[in-house]
Amino acid sequence: MTTPRVEADLGWALGRVARAHLRTAQDVVSGLPGGPRGYQVLAGLAEGPPRTQLALARTLGVDRTVMTYLLDELEGAGLVERRPDPSDRRARQVLLTEVGGARLCDLERRLRGAEDELLAPLDPAERDQLRSLLQRLAVGADGASACQVAADIQQMQGDGTC
């Protein structure tokens, strides 16, 4: 039996998988301030030294004014804290709180479980290979940030939220 033409199309397959992943991921992060963007902020803060608000906004591809409101919400929930940057008192560093780190761990665990369900037709080695290949493609595609990619997918779906 041959595969129908549409099912052999890369764009069709990527679109179907991306939409399924997006629905699942939105369910997981729905209670988090900022939703997917809030998750990206927490994940971005978990790696490396403290970052300034501006550096974090640039890394995630988020407008700096939007980042301010997003950090206000995350700080209000006790997930992040802002403090003056010791090297530049005009700038503010953003740090993950202990509560924020625990929330991030929970979200990562739940997202991994949701991904495992989505990738259930593949064996574990194929899942790892797919993740690795997609990460290489995503990084090399057009230099867009993770948040911009998510925003683009959501815009194509018409809901316009990230």
From TrEMBL:
<dbReference type="InterPro" id="IPR000835">
    <property type="entry name" value="HTH_MarR-typ"/>
</dbReference>
<dbReference type="GO" id="GO:0003700">
    <property type="term" value="F:DNA-binding transcription factor activity"/>
</dbReference>
<protein>
    <submittedName>
        <fullName>DNA-binding MarR family transcriptional regulator</fullName>
    </submittedName>
</protein>
<keyword id="KW-0805">Transcription regulation</keyword>
<dbReference type="InterPro" id="IPR039422">
    <property type="entry name" value="MarR/SlyA-like"/>
</dbReference>
<dbReference type="GO" id="GO:0003677">
    <property type="term" value="F:DNA binding"/>
</dbReference>
<dbReference type="GO" id="GO:0006950">
    <property type="term" value="P:response to stress"/>
</dbReference>
<dbReference type="InterPro" id="IPR036388">
    <property type="entry name" value="WH-like_DNA-bd_sf"/>
</dbReference>
<dbReference type="Pfam" id="PF12802">
    <property type="entry name" value="MarR_2"/>
</dbReference>
<keyword id="KW-0238">DNA-binding</keyword>
<dbReference type="InterPro" id="IPR036390">
    <property type="entry name" value="WH_DNA-bd_sf"/>
</dbReference>
<keyword id="KW-0804">Transcription</keyword>
<feature type="domain" description="HTH marR-type">
    <location>
        <begin position="7"/>
        <end position="139"/>
    </location>
</feature>
